[in-house]
Amino acid sequence: MKTMKRSTLAIALIALVVVIAAIFFMRGGKPSGKAGDQVAATKGKDGAAAPKPALTVTVAKPEPTELMLTLAANGNVAAWQEAVIGSESNGLKLAEVRVNVGDTVKKGQVLAVFSPETVQADIAQARASLAEARATAADAAGNAARARTLQATGALSQQQINQYQTTEQTAKARVEAAEAVLAAQQVRGRNTQVLAPDDGVISARTATVGSVVAAGTELFRLIRQGRLEWRAEVTSAELSRVAVGTTAFVVSASGAQVRGKVRSIAPTVDPQTRAALVYVDLPNVQQNTGVKAGMFARGDFELGRSTAPTVPQAAVVPRDGFNNVFILKPDNKVAQMKVQIGRRLNDRIEITSALPEGAQVVVQGAGFLNDGDLVRVVDAPSPPSSAAAQPARPAASDAAAK
User: Most exposed among 5, 65, 128, 271, judged by the fewest C-beta atoms under 10 Å?
Assistant: First the structure.
């Protein structure tokens, strides 16, 4: 009995499986319910699955933008004129130094002082010699005058009269010589003070208190009027684009930027480098702590303005050593295109190579795309309005305003 029941149960199960299989094949193998609907929805008219966009992006058209025409150059920063201030006194001890490197001085300001005792003694001696010479000259002049009054009487011979006159002239010459010696000693007295020859900034100092220096020894160096200049090297092919008065923007190694103007252009070109020096005046050295004489600096000459097509900087994707943009095609696929870039203005960059007419470049998401990707285009988010950006006033403030 048990064996018969088991056989009947097995037969029933087999029959149930056969019925289910028959129903499935009769419906064409299509799944029923929501799962079947979803599968059918993902198929196109030809039965193939529809492709999905790789990324949601924003696009923009190249816009004409007014940009500055510039000419890049390199060069050194130097002093406009550097005056060497030396000692005019010989064998005097330096008693006082009143300035140091970096100090701003005025024309005629005392920079250093030598010990004046020796010079003052020499001046006193010269004055005494001058007084003696003047007394001798006065006596000689009196003798000569008396001799001339006796010339008609014959009391003195002509030879004696000539001697008195010669003595008078000699005494006058000695007075003049004594005056010259006194003047020279007075000049030495004035030279005990070292004066600034012009307004400017002290750039070097070798003066040391207590040292005895010879005439002509350098004591200070002075940047005249505190003026610096940028000596830019411009090739002979581009030299004609720069003129006197052209504005230049100079950037030092520290990143400091200074605006200057072209003062002059060298009349000759270096035969080795084929470049000429362009001298650009820079503002006061004390006002530009980031620019110093002796620095190497790069800069740009402002040659004018021109209109050129630009795209947002985010649209330019550097890959494999080239700059690329992604052009949106009518089927919403993108095509990668190599471009040449030029000048920059804020967040926009110039495209110097030709783009297809009416082209739209991908902006947001361009860095994640590959050539041929399908994209979904959305509008770029608009900047928040000023009204939305203002914080809401509290209710108490509104009530007070009413």
Answer: 271
DSSP-derived letter for residue 95 is E
Confidence of residue 8 (pLDDT cuts 50, 70, 90): low
pLDDT at 43 over 50: no
Element holding 92 (H helix, E strand):
strand 92-97
Q: Per-residue pLDDT averaged across 296-325, rounded?
A: 89
CA-CA-CA-CA dihedral for 44, 48, 53, 59, to nearest 10: -60
Distance CA 45, CA 17 (A): 35
Architecture of the domain made up of 92-114+192-225: Beta Barrel (2.40)
* Residue bearing tokens 């010259």: 180
The Cα–Cα gap between 167 and 144 comes to 8
Domain boundaries, the chain: 56-64+307-377, 92-114+192-225, 116-189, 226-305
What is the identity of the amino acid at 200?
G
pLDDT, tens only, 189-219: 888 999 999 999 999 999 999 999 888 899 9
Query: Using an 8 Å Cβ cutoff, are 163 and 144 in contact?
Result: no
| CATH T-level fold of 226-305 | Elongation Factor Tu (Ef-tu); domain 3 (2.40.30)
Give the pLDDT mean for 245-266. Answer: 89
Instruction: Decide if pLDDT at 42 tops 60.
Output: no
Alpha-carbon dihedral angle through residues 133, 139, 142, 144, given to the nearest 10 degrees: -80
Domain 56-64+307-377 adopts which CATH fold? 2.40.420
Token duo for residue 218: 């350098």
* pTM for this model (two decimals): 0.59
CATH superfamily placement of domain 116-189: Helix hairpin bin (1.10.287.470)
Cβ neighbours of residue 21 closer than 8 Å, sequence gap 6 or more: none
Beta bridge partners of 323: 318, 339
